[in-house]
């Protein structure tokens, strides 16, 4: 039986799993850790370290050590997120040729796909060392609310690392697969996934070994990091005015404080009080090192977290509405992501769904295990209909449509449509004797083009001249089982047609990805 | 990995007649089947025809055919599980059994549903509908002041709307009753 990896490529940590002898195995690194920090550090003379070794470099080599890269992956350099990140990140971001974000470290420029590829290669190495054989197939997970560019960027990262990426699967979906496989359930499962950088919720209908995603919603700007930021703000506000400015202006001090805040948050999961201690956090006006010391109670942390938790429930409301379900229809709640270890989050989720979350699910590992389940059922599906493996029926996470002249988006495929799917709409010309139409493909829930994301555009030319409204163009959207979108336009009268495969509008061209492949570079 | 000939023949046969099957035939259930039975049938057909079940065969032509077949299966389920869309679809099937049902796409059904929803709208103007929606929300929250205020705003946009007038007077009565119940002499009255 061929092995195929399940990889949870996380904002803070990554996990790699495999199905071996019918059982899931979370693969430990040589140091025994099962969570591998998503950190890449570039040293002098071209050395690259990844994982725990790189994490130790965050403080000592901050400008060449890349963390939280997933937050920037597939985003435009001019987006709000990237602008904000440039202010706080200690490493240098530069604009790439296609408005994408690149990173400068040790005098070289790297695409974020390459940074992610270093992490993927590291995970692959861990897996191969453990299994004692070469593995080149993988399913990689992404937040459910990742858009097309971000998914494509993740796929490209896999290709650069020399992996054959079988699928990009949504994290909450993978978690549900891992939870539900072999349970012979007939029920609705809610997955609440609060990770380091993103929040997702998915509702799945499980019928035996068929997993149908019913609704998915998410917020790509809400995660554990925001809870840490709240703590940092609270801690800094306890300092004298002048010292507050000193700390805020010092990225290393902020990073130290953020690390301390994170570990305080984690220890508050088991205790009522956490001590925060950072030696030599900043220098006072006489240039003397000042230690930082403070305490944080669980009650204080809970109070500053309610606002963020409330935002997750707005997202849950949307998913439940889309699924047309009420709390009573949900028969299991699965928690995913390190943040869900926090008692305040657990209690709030329990109150929201009026149901105790499933115990016995490891919130850090379940996503990667689910990815391995999907990978294994793809490469090993025995004989189609009689195969024993889980079948996942996924959906489109966001609506897709065509831009109109007035600046609106006409929807063609609604969000949460099961894939593969096909839908078409007929559009007419808006000017007399128009011989060309421009088809702009948008993604998002807004009806206004300005608030939607442009995925790609193409023209259908050579239309027979006719009065406006008489020339009819049929625009068809096709999404295959792996989520790749094809858009075609056809002049109904003449049969003339044009089409594109939607690749990321912000990102690498296929040739670039080929050039970056590690195996061709000898990395 | 082997797929038996029977299955392959079945896929070819289904692919050939795809354009002539209605949603019920697609899922192989009778037209009066309850939704639970339709769902089970969907799960069953998914296991038989989802392209992922044959991914390991590395056969692009088979994948293409299965994708077309499965697309219809998924579409059938997405219509039949939605009570409103199913009603519209069933009506069309009954009205013209010989109709080219397979050509009837989900988007046309959705369009008809949206038009039905538009006909059920109380207001004809955008402004009016906006305030009417706010009034409905306020009523759900038990905020009678809000109901009266927003209905009045809606009436400003559509002074001749009889339904709005009726609802305004009902809301005003309710608001007065509510005030009597929760009388507070220190509150500023909103007329």
Give an overview in words.
The complex is a heterodimer of chains A (523) and B (191). Chain A is α+β, with helices and mostly antiparallel strands and 523 residues long. Chain A is 31% helix and 32% strand. In chain A, a hairpin with a 5-residue loop joins β8 (92-95) and β9 (101-105). Chain B has 191 residues and is mostly helical. Chain B is built from nine helices and no strands. The termini of chain B are far apart. Chains A and B meet through α12, β19 and β22 of A and α3, α4 and α6 of B.
Unreliable segments of 5+ consecutive residues of chain B: none
**Structural class by helix and strand composition of chain A:** alpha+beta
Task: Outline the biggest β-sheet of chain A.
Answer: 6 strands, mixed
For the largest beta-sheet of chain B, the strand count, sense and barrel status come to:
none
Oligomer: heterodimer
Quick synopsis:
With 523 residues, chain A is α+β, with helices and mostly antiparallel strands.
Layout of helices and strands, plus pairs?
The complex is a heterodimer of chains A (523) and B (191).
Chain A lengths: L4 E5 L3 E8 L2 E4 L9 E2 L2 E3 L5 E3 L1 H4 L1 H4 L4 E2 L13 H9 L3 E4 L5 E5 L2 E4 H20 L5 E6 L5 H13 L3 E7 H10 L5 E9 L4 E9 L2 E10 L4 H14 L3 H8 L2 H17 L5 E11 L5 E9 H26 L6 E7 L6 H11 L12 H15 L10 E3 L6 E4 L5 E5 L7 E8 L7 E8 L9 E9 L10 E8 L5 E7 L5 E5 L8 H7 L1 H4 L2
Parallel strand pairs in A: 1-11, 11-12, 13-18, 15-19
Antiparallel strand pairs in A: 1-2, 2-3, 2-4, 5-6, 5-7, 8-9, 9-10, 13-14, 14-15, 16-17, 20-21, 20-23, 22-25, 23-24, 25-26, 26-27
Helix pairs in contact in A: 4-5, 5-13, 6-12, 7-9, 7-10, 10-11
Chain B lengths: L4 H13 L5 H5 L7 H15 L10 H21 L2 H13 L10 H14 L6 H15 L3 H14 L4 H20 L10
Note the main attributes of this structure:
heterodimer, A: 523 residues, alpha+beta, Nucleotidyltransferase, domain 5, Actin, Chain A, domain 4, Substrate Binding Domain Of DNAk, Chain A, domain 1, 3 domains, 5-stranded mixed sheet, 27 strands, globular, B: 191 residues, mainly alpha, Helix Hairpins, 9 helices, 68% helix
